[in-house]
From TrEMBL:
It comes from Myxococcus llanfairpwllgwyngyllgogerychwyrndrobwllllantysiliogogogochensis. This is histidine kinase. Residues 337-389, 466-518 form the PAC domain. It catalyses: ATP + protein L-histidine = ADP + protein N-phospho-L-histidine. The keyword Zinc does not apply. It is an enzyme of class 2 (transferase). Residues 529-745 form the Histidine kinase domain.
Length: 755
C-alpha cells in the first residue's frame, strides 16, 4: 500500500459542486420506495446534503489506492439515523440509490471514466454502508444484552421455578426460585443433568417428561414430585420445546410451581366435602332450597329414598306443581315465601319427616330464597306408635290380671302402681299411692326384716330377680298373703335403677292349700291306722282256715266253704298290703327296698309257678334269654311280676295265653308281660299309673276288682330300682307292659334300706 496516496481532487470537487442536485435526485429516487431508511421521514434539504457531504468526505479520505485504509468518523450519519430507528435493510437500499445518482451525475458532467476513482467512490459508499451495519449490529447487541438482563431479572423474581435444558438434559439456565426450592446454586446446576442432581426416581420422572416434549414438539403439563429435606413436594410443571433451525426442538424450557400446600389444602377441602357428602347421603335427611317464587333449586339427601323421589324429578320444578294435591305442603311453601320461619311434621311417600324451614331475607327485607332440612322420623313415629300400643296393651293387661304391677324408682323411693292396686289393697279412692315407706310399713312386722334384707341382698349382689311371700296389711286392716316377684333394672355400669314387679294376692289359694294338706294327712293317717288294725284279724282268719283245711274229716261242701274263706282272706291281705304301700308312697318315705343279688329268670319262674296254682285253668308262657343276674329286692320284684301277670289274666279272655319274657343285656334286664284282649282306652293311658284308676277301665274277666293300686305300686317299685315302666295297648297287638331294670342300683336312684 502507498503511504502517501494522491487525492482525487477533480472527482470529489465535481461531486461537491453538484451536491444540491445529487441530494434532490436521491430524494426523488427514494421517495417512490420510501421505507424505514435514511429518508423514511420528510427530510430537509440540509439533511440530505449532509449525507451526500459525508460520502464526498469519505471519497476525499481515500487515496488513489483502493486498498488504502481510512478511519471512519465516530459521529457518522448511519449511527445517528440508527438511533432514530432506521431499518438497516432500507439504509443499504438507499445507499445503493445514492450510488446510482452519483454515477449518473458524473456521467452527465462528462467525467472521463477513471477506474481508480470509481473504486474509491464504491469504497466510500461501501464504507458508509459498513459503518451503518456495524453501528446497527452494535446497537442491536446492546439492546439484546439489555433485553436479556431485563428478562433474567424478571425470571429471577418470578415465583415459580423456571429453567431450560438442552437436548441432552443439561441445564442451561435456572432462576432463583429454582435455587431456593432445590437448595442448589445456579453454578452447581447449570451444565449438569437431573441424574447428577436428584434421586433416581425423581430424575427418571423429569427425564421422561422432557423426552415427551422433545419428541412431540408440543407443550406438556403434568405433576412432578421432588423429595426435599422437609418431605415430598408436588410441582405443577409446564414444559414446552425451544425450536431451532428447521423448526426442530433443541431444548426444553419449564415452569414449575410448588403446589404442595395448595394440593394439601385442596385435598383437605375435598376430604371435608366428601365427608360432608357422605354424612348428607347417609343421614336420613333431605336438604332442599327454592328461589323466592318457589322454583326448587336443591333437593339432595338419603331421605329421598324414603320419599320415593329422585333429584332430577324435582329440581327445576315449582312447588305448586310438585305439591299439587297436598294443601298442607302448599300452605307451608306460602308461609316460607312470606318470610316465616317454622317447623312441621309431614308425610311424604309413606315416610314421615320433621321439616325445618328458614327463608333468607335480603337487605330490603324481601325473601331471596328458602332453604330447609327434612329429617326422616319414620322410625320414631313407628316407635311412638308401638309405645302407645304397648302402653294400651299394658293397661289392658293390668286390668285383666289379678296381679298388681309396680315400678319402683330406687333412687327416689317413688312407686308407680297399676290401676288394680287400690282395689286389691282395699285402699280408699282419695288415698294417695303407697311409696316405699308406706309399702314397708304395710308388711307384717314378723316378715318385714326378712323381706328388706333379702331384697337388699339381691340389689347389692348384682342379681336381677327377687321373689318372696309375705303378709301384707290391706287398707281395711285385714291381712293378705302376697306373692311378690320383682325384676331389677340396671344401667350399663350395673347400678340398680328400678325394680319392676308384680304382687299377687294368694290368700285364698294358701288357705285352700292348707285345708287340702290337712285333709290329705288325715286321710293317709286313717288309711294307715285301718290297714294296720286289719292285719291281725286277717292273719287269724288265714291261719284258722289253713288249719281247718288240714282236717281229713271235712266233706266237700265244708272244704269249699273254707277255701272260699281262705281265698277271701288272702285277697283282703293283698288289698291291705297295697293300702299300706300306697300310704307309705304318699307319705313321702317311699316303698322300702332291700336289694340283694338275684337271678331275674329264676325269680320270674318261681312267681309264675305260684300264679299257676291260683289259676290252673290259664296258660302262662315264659321265655328267658341272656344273663339274668342283678341286685334287686326279690319280694318287691315278685310283687311287680305278680301284679302285672294277675292284671294280664284279669283283662284277657280265658282261652288266650299270657306271655312273659325276661331278657338280659349288658347292663340291664327287660321284663315284659303280654296279653290279648280289649285294649286300654287311650284316654286312660296317660293316667294309668295313678292310684284309684282301676274303675275307669273295663271290668276284669273274672269280675273281681281291687282298689286300683296295683299299677301305682308297680310304678313306685320300678322307680325305686332306677328302672323304667312303659305300656303299649292296641286292638291288633294286645296289651304289653315293659319293665327295664338296671343290674345294680344307680347313684341317682338310691334304695331305702329300711324295713
Amino acid at each position: 500500500m502507498n503511504p502517501c496516496p494522491a487525492p482525487i481532487g477533480p472527482l470529489s470537487d465535481l461531486l461537491s459542486s453538484r451536491r444540491e442536485d445529487i441530494a434532490r435526485r436521491w430524494e426523488e429516487r427514494a421517495g417512490a420506495s420510501r421505507g424505514e431508511g435514511l429518508l423514511r421521514l420528510p427530510t430537509q434539504t440540509t439533511g440530505s446534503l449532509e449525507w451526500v457531504d459525508s460520502v464526498v468526505d469519505l471519497l476525499r479520505r481515500f487515496g488513489v489506492s483502493a486498498e488504502h485504509e481510512v478511519q471512519l468518523p465516530t459521529d457518522g450519519q448511519g449511527a445517528e439515523r440508527y438511533r432514530a430507528g432506521a431499518n438497516i435493510a432500507a439504509v443499504v437500499r438507499e445507499y445503493g440509490l445514492l450510488r446510482d445518482v452519483l454515477v449518473e451525475v458524473l456521467e452527465e458532467s462528462g467525467w472521463p471514466p477513471d477506474f481508480k476513482g470509481l473504486r474509491a467512490l464504491n469504497r466510500a459508499i461501501d464504507a458508509s454502508i459498513a459503518d451503518a451495519v456495524t453501528r446497527h449490529a452494535a446497537a442491536h447487541e446492546q439492546t439484546l444484552r439489555l433485553t436479556e438482563a431485563k428478562l433474567h431479572d424478571i425470571l429471577d423474581h418470578a415465583p415459580p421455578a423456571i429453567y431450560a435444558k438442552d437436548a441432552t438434559g443439561r441445564y442451561l439456565f435456572v432462576n432463583r426460585a429454582f435455587e431456593r426450592g432445590s437448595g442448589l446454586s445456579s453454578e452447581k446446576v447449570v451444565g449438569h443433568t437431573d441424574d447428577e442432581l436428584f434421586t433416581p426416581d425423581v430424575a427418571a420422572e423429569f427425564s421422561s417428561n422432557d423426552r415427551r416434549v422433545l419428541e412431540s414438539g408440543q407443550p406438556l403439563e403434568s405433576d412432578e414430585h421432588v423429595r426435599f429435606k422437609d418431605g415430598w413436594h408436588i410441582y405443577q410443571s409446564l414444559k414446552f420445546p425451544l425450536l431451532g433451525v428447521g423448526g426442530q426442538a433443541h431444548a426444553v424450557c419449564g415452569i414449575s410451581t410448588d403446589v404442595t400446600e395448595a394440593r394439601r389444602i385442596q385435598r383437605e377441602r375435598d376430604e371435608a366435602r366428601e365427608r360432608l357428602r357422605r354424612v348428607i347421603t347417609e343421614l336420613p335427611v333431605v336438604l332442599w332450597a327454592t328461589d323466592p317464587v318457589g322454583n326448587i333449586t336443591l333437593f339432595e339427601g338419603a331421605g329421598l329414598r324414603a320419599m320415593g323421589v329422585r333429584t332430577e324429578d324435582v329440581v327445576g320444578r315449582n312447588t305448586s306443581e310438585v305439591y299439587a294435591g297436598r294443601p298442607e305442603l302448599l300452605d307451608a311453601a306460602r308461609r316460607a315465601q312470606q318470610g316465616e320461619t317454622f317447623s312441621l311434621e309431614l308425610e311424604v311417600g309413606g315416610a314421615w319427616f320433621m321439616a325445618f324451614i328458614s327463608p333468607e331475607l335480603g337487605p330490603d327485607g324481601r325473601v331471596m330464597s328458602v332453604s330447609g332440612v327434612s329429617l326422616d322420623i319414620t322410625e320414631r313415629r313407628r316407635a311412638e306408635e308401638v309405645l302407645r300400643q304397648s302402653e294400651t296393651r299394658y293397661r289392658l293387661a293390668t286390668l285383666a290380671t289379678r296381679d298388681v304391677i309396680y315400678d319402683w324408682n330406687l333412687s327416689t323411693g317413688h312407686i308407680q302402681w297399676s290401676e288394680l292396686a287400690n282395689r286389691q289393697f282395699r285402699l280408699p279412692p282419695e288415698m294417695p299411692g303407697l311409696d316405699i315407706e308406706g309399702w314397708t310399713r304395710s308388711i307384717h312386722p314378723e316378715d318385714r326384716e326378712r323381706v328388706g334384707r333379702d331384697m337388699q341382698r339381691i340389689i347389692d349382689m348384682g342379681l336381677d330377680h327377687w321373689r318372696d311371700e309375705y303378709r301384707f296389711r290391706r287398707g281395711d286392716g285385714s291381712w293378705a298373703i302376697i306373692e311378690d316377684r320383682g325384676q331389677v333394672v340396671r344401667d350399663a355400669a350395673g347400678r340398680a335403677l328400678r325394680m319392676v314387679g308384680a304382687m299377687h294376692d294368694v290368700t285364698e289359694r294358701r288357705v285352700a292349700d292348707e285345708e287340702a294338706r290337712r285333709r290329705a294327712e288325715f286321710e293317709q293317717l286313717l288309711i294307715g291306722i285301718v290297714g294296720h288294725d286289719l292285719r291281725n284279724p286277717l292273719s287269724a282268719i288265714t291261719m284258722a282256715s289253713t288249719t281247718l283245711l288240714r282236717r281229713e274229716s271235712l266233706d266237700e261242701r265244708q272244704r269249699k266253704v273254707i277255701d272260699r274263706i281262705l281265698s277271701s282272706a288272702e285277697r283282703a291281705t293283698r288289698m291291705l298290703r297295697d293300702v299300706l304301700d300306697f300310704t307309705q308312697a304318699r307319705l313321702g318315705g317311699g316303698i322300702p327296698m332291700q336289694p340283694r343279688p338275684q337271678d331275674l329268670h329264676e325269680l320270674t319262674r318261681q312267681v309264675l309257678d305260684e300264679v299257676r296254682l291260683a289259676h290252673p285253668e290259664r296258660v302262662l308262657e315264659l321265655e328267658s334269654r341272656g344273663d339274668g343276674a342283678g341286685a334287686w329286692d326279690p319280694d318287691r320284684l315278685a310283687q311287680v311280676i305278680t301284679n302285672l301277670v294277675n292284671n294280664a289274666l284279669a283283662y284277657s279272655p280265658s282261652h288266650c295265653p299270657v306271655l312273659v319274657r325276661t331278657h338280659g343285656t349288658r347292663d340291664a334286664l327287660m321284663l315284659s308281660v303280654h296279653n290279648m284282649g280289649t285294649p286300654i282306652p287311650p284316654e286312660l293311658l296317660p293316667r294309668l299309673f295313678e292310684p284309684m284308676k282301676r274303675a275307669e277301665r273295663l271290668e276284669s274277666q273274672d269280675g273281681r276288682g281291687g282298689l286300683g293300686l296295683g299299677l301305682f305300686i308297680v310304678k313306685h317299685i320300678v322307680d325305686a330300682h332306677g328302672g323304667r315302666l312303659r305300656v303299649r295297648s292296641s286292638q291288633q297287638g294286645g296289651t304289653l307292659f315293659m319293665v327295664r331294670l338296671p343290674r345294680a342300683p344307680t347313684p341317682q336312684t338310691p334304695m331305702n334300706p329300711g324295713p
